[in-house]
Amino acid sequence: MLVSLDTPYVDTCAADLSLTLGGPERPALHVRDVTLPGDVRLRLRLLGASHQVVLTAPTPAAGAGLTETVACLPGRPPHLPGALHDEAGGYLFTATVLHPADGELRARIATLRADLTDDPYALVGVFPGDPDAVTAMAVRTDLPDGSVGWRTWHAYPQTNELVLTETVVALR
Question: In terms of DSSP H, where are the helices of 35-152?
Answer without folding.
Answer: 104-116
